[in-house]
Amino acid sequence: MEAKKLLVLLVRGEMQGYGLRLTRRYRDVLDRDEVRSAVDLALLRAAERFDACRGPFLVFAMIWVRREVLQLLRRELSWRRRRAEPESAIEPARFDSPHDEAERSQISRLIDAEQHELWRAHVGGGESVRELAATYGKSLRQIQSTIARSQRRLSRVHGPSAAASTRTRRRPPC
């Protein structure tokens, strides 16, 4: 018997139990046979890609089984959700008036401006996160997440090379 087939046969029962435990909460959504089929498919894929130098097969197979079973669950839940909602229930979001829409867009622009200002002060001005937190009256975590959000937005707009070139090295504490 081929070595990869033997690996699959050795762990098949344990992995099917693992797959069923993953979907325990959704027993009414998924059929046991569907889960077992997904586990078998994942085991075959794992056996094809397995490299003994990287670790034990059981751990590698668990990753593939988990991925395949959760994808099956997501597909089934999204299909049921689409089937349950009639098309007439799906309407685009409407604002009460043009004034409300303008106000929401203005608020989002103000938030974006503050994020950009914090990012510019940190990267361009060289201010530390502690100084910015004291200036704006926010916690260190809030300032760090705002700067990170601005950095991600910049890299999405201008590409990863532009964002990487604007990063500064950490200065030693003074």
If you consult CATH, what is the topology of the largest domain?
Answer: Rna Polymerase Sigma Factor, Chain: A
- Unreliable stretches: 162-166
Gross morphology is elongated
Terminal Cα span: 67 Å
Structural class: mainly alpha
Note down, in words, how this protein is organized.
The chain has 174 residues and is mainly alpha-helical. It has 2 domains: 86 residues, Rna Polymerase Sigma Factor, Chain: A, CATH 1.10.1740; 59 residues. The chain is built from 7 helices and no strands. α1 crosses α3. The longest helix has 28 residues. About 3% of the residues have low confidence.
Brief characterization of the structure:
This protein has about 170 residues and is mainly α. The chain contains 7 helices and no strands. The protein is about 70% helix and about 0% strand.
What are its keywords?
174 residues; mainly alpha; Rna Polymerase Sigma Factor, Chain: A; 2 domains; 72% helix; 0% strand; elongated
